[in-house]
Every structure is written in C-alpha cells, then in structure tokens.
Amino acid sequence: MARYGSVLDLIGETPVVDVSELSPSPHVKIWAKLEGRNPAGSVKDRVALSLVNAAERDGRLVPGRAGQVLLEPSSGNTGIALAMVCRLRGYHLKVVLPTNVSPERRQLLLAWGAEIIESPGSEGSNGAVRLAQRLAGEHPEWTFLYQYANPANPAAHYTTTGPEILRDVPEITHFVAGLGTSGTLMGVGRYLKENKPGVQVWAVEPPSGEMVDGLRSLEDGYIPPVFTDNDGAALLDRKVVVRPRESIEWTRRMTDVGLFVGISSGAIMAGAVKCAALVPPEETATIVSIVCDDGWKYLSTGAWSDDIDDVVERARRIIYF
Amino acid sequence: MAAVVRIPTVLRPATGGATLVSVEGSTIGDVLESLTTTYPAIRGQLLNEDGTLHRFLNVYVNDDDVRYLGGVDAPVADDDEITLLPAVAGGAH
C-alpha cells in the first residue's frame, strides 16, 4: 500500500532498474539502485535516520526536549538528510560544509532549517571534518554524531540497503559503490559477503583535484574510522579511481537509459562498467551499482548542457561525492 | 620503454618539482624502489620501514588501486601509468 504515516517511513525500499544497455558485455547485467528516490533525495537519508535513531536509543538525544543541537561535517547529502530528520524530530542542526559544494546543496540545507558553518573549500571534506571535530571539542553540549566514525552509518546499510539488494537481485555477483565515509560499502559489503559468499565488492574512489593539491603532507590524509573499524581493506575486492571527465561522460550516458543522476553516480557507473569489462567472456555476471542521488542538485554545474571541457574544469572545483 | 609515475603536489618537493617520472620496473615494489633511488627524499613518504605502503598513500596502476592487486607485488607493464594519491575523506575534487 502506498500510504504512509510519516515522510520518514518513505526512507529505503528504493527500486532497482536494469541498465544493462550500458554494459560493455552481453554476458554482464548491470542494475542501478535508485537512492535518489529517498524523500530528502539521496542514499544518506538511510544514514541520517539511523544516526538519529541510535542517538535517541542511547540517550544522547531526547525527543521533545528543547534546545538540543546537532553538529555534523558533510559535503552535502548527509547534511541535507539530517536537516530533514532534525526538522521532523525537533533538533537544531549545524552543518560544517566546505564552501565549494554546489549552491543547490546549500539551499536545500537552508530550506530544512539547518545552520551552515563554512569550512575552507581548499581543504575539502577533510577540512570540514577537522573543523567539526574542533567545534565538538569546544561544545560538549552539542551532539556530534560523526558519520565517518559512527557504527550506525554502516549499520543502516547492513540492515536495509544490503537486504533489499539481495532480495531484489539474488543473482548478484558484484556490488559497486562510491567510497566517501565508506558506510555504504562497509554495510552492504558485509551483509552481502555474509549472506552470499563470493560476491565481489568494488569501491569507486572520487577523483582528487584541488583539495588534494592543497595538502601540506601525506600526514594530512584521512581514512574514515568506519573503513578501518570494518576492516575495509579486507572487505573490498577492488578499488578504482574515476577521473572527472569519465564521471561527467557517464553522468550523461545515464540519460540514455532514462536516468538523470548526480555526478558521483556517473562516476560509480563508470566504475561498474570497468568492472563489467573485466569479467571473462566465458562467464556471466550481475552487477548492482548505487545511484546516490538525482541530478537536480548539480544543474548549476551545467553537467548535461555545457561544453564538456568547461564542465570538467568546473567540476574540479566542486565537491560532488 | 618504462612506466610513468604521476607525482602529486604534496610529494613534488621531494622530486625537485617533477610531475611525471619515467621509471623501470616490473612490479610496484620495483617501481617505487627505483623512484626512491632517483629521489631518496621521497622514500620516507612512500614506504614504511618494513617496505609496505604508507597508510595515507594510495597507488594506482591505470586507475586501479594496487592494494587490491597484490600491493608492492602488483605487476607493472610498459606504458602503464602509475598515480600516487594521498588518502582523503571522499568528496574532495
């Protein structure tokens, strides 16, 4: 029945659609799981709800109590999803957001009543994490859910995304997703490996650009605790990096199968196609890849309409994972 | 014939500013070894004392992370492009 008591009940149970037309091999099927169908528009709705529910369960947040403040570093989608959940649950959210995210992301945060604290764009997501950690130290009265280290992040995918994938595509042989906090890969990956041994888990690393250029030393690097806590290096079978041009090209190619998706999902599809191309011709395979969000938040980048060289250059300066 | 190593900004002080370095070697270990022979200052940034990769360094052969292809034993062919990239939280680009 398509009748729900709360918008939060709309989170999850996203459709998967056959996009094998994009596969380089007739023996390899590719399915895309459309996380943009979540009510706040991305896969992060699952994470935001899981983080808040876990904090309410352990008493860090108390529904109905006035004046509760949450703090979170986000390049956009987690912030947007948390803003929606917080609006419904009555919490005030402060999002530490790099200055170089697409303007649509800022506006969506403001639409749901979140407060934006800017971190330097040149420091990317690492800079947002650092600033949030400092602010959390200075304000112990704020609740710092910290998606990069919170087990409720991968748990959201272990308990919902993973089971949905195996139920809907039981013949799955490969799972391909993006590597940000690593929550999707760790949660879905662990669920699939436990319940269907032999499934391969592939990570797509976002391309690096200006922000990596700005690092002072390798010691400024960052590996999310969610990745190390879940022994990510052992869980993943392969990790590929996708370049900005490929990301845009595949974001455009997705419209051939009727999908208008965000740029990170173009990158992930590029990774899924690389995966498909490596399946030996005598074997069959079924890949499930994640579409993290739809294209709306990226229209200002001109990704679908402008000259690709201009778009690639513009995309180097924004954060889209 | 050799592989080409792409040096990230953060490591360029150790290569005298070079961004693309041509290196001989049939494995990633060989390639990094000959790179550190040419540029001794880079060694401590690439490898731990036991010869494993620095934890905040990702090494790609033609866009494939070598940690999942055998690490320092990952094979390298002529004309392969090897990219060294610092590990960062996803999203910066």
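qc> Residues 3-86 of chain B form a domain with the Ubiquitin-like (UB roll) fold (CATH 3.10.20.30).
qc> done
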